[in-house]
Amino acid sequence: VIWTQSAFTALNDIWGSTKRASTQKKNYTLPNGIMTNSDISRIINSDEVQSKVRPAVKNNLRANRKHNPLKNMSALVKLNPYALQMKRTSLLTQQRRLRQKA
User: What is the dihedral of CA 12, 18, 20, 21, to 10 degrees?
Assistant: First the structure.
């Protein structure tokens, strides 16, 4: 796309500029940039800003993962210690029944 000089003047008529109002829009001027210095990293890391900012909080605590007791036997045993004995007896009875069938 090639822009001509007349296209730029038409854009200035429609939108205006930061100093001159638009001729086709009522009371419209392009917004000005609020910041005069856009080097944000330099501003944030400056001594003036860093002296007022509180230090970063390092939170290394992680939440424990909840285990499903229906799928995780150790989680079930924590909730119901007798579950281990029930599981053993059910396995033994299954093995006994298989031996009796064979």
Answer: 80
